[in-house]
Amino acid sequence: MAEIFVDKYNCIVCDGELQEKSKYGLCEDCKNKLRIVGDKICKKCGRLQLNEADYCLTCKEHKRQFDFARSCVVYDDVAKEIVRGIKFGGKKYFAKYIANFLVEKYQSAFDGVDIDVVIPVPMTKKGKAARGFNQSWEIAKRFAETVGLTADDKIVAKIKDTQEQATLGGKEREENILGAFEVKLQEAVEGKSVLIIDDVMTTGSTASEIARVLKEAKAKEVYLLTFASTKYKVEK
Ligand SMILES: [Zn+2]
Ligand SMILES: [Zn+2]
User: What's the pTM value of the predicted model, to 2 decimals?
Assistant: First the structure.
C-alpha cells in the first residue's frame, strides 16, 4: 500500500511533534531547558562565570593559546542529549541544527573579528572510521556555508590517538593531547585568522593545543566557537 507522505516534524530530543519546522529542531519545552551562555562569562574561554571576575580560575592558571573561545549553551541536560545524539548516536543530521546555534552566537560574539578560515577539531583516521563522520566537520561545514566563510578540514590533522578527554582530569588532558595535532597546510594559515569549531568545550585544552600548532605555523589569530561548554565546577 502506498504511503501518503506528510510533512511532520519532531523534536530531536523528546520526539514530541512540532507545530512547525524549527531551526533548532527543538520543541519549546526542550529549547527552554537549554541554558544559554549570556554575557556573564570568562572573557577568555567563554564559559559561564559564577562571580564578577573577568577570568575563570582555569584561564588564570593556564596559558591559553587561543585568542578567545565562545559557546552557545551550557553542557547539561538537553545540550548533552543533542551532543550524544550526533557523537554516539549516529545522528549526523543534528549538525544543521547545532550550526544554527553557532551562527547566532557568531553574529553576536564575533563582531569586529575577521575570520579567514573555519576548521573543525580533527579526528584521527581511525577515530573517524569508527564514528563514520567527524561531527565537528559536519557542524563546521554548515556553519561556514551559512555565514559565508570558507571551511577546510585538510589544514590540521590529528596524528595521534588520544584517550577520550572526558575521562581525564585537567592536567592529564593537557598531557594526553600534547603533540596530537599537526598543521598540514601552512600556507592556508600563515597570517590568517582561524576559527575552530567543535561540539563541546570542556577545559579548552584540545582547542589550546590546536591553537598552539596553528600559531607555530604563523596563524595570526585563533578563535574557538562551540555549541556547548561545560559547567563551571565549584567546590562544595
Ligand atoms: Zn522536545
Ligand atoms: Zn576561562
Answer: 0.93
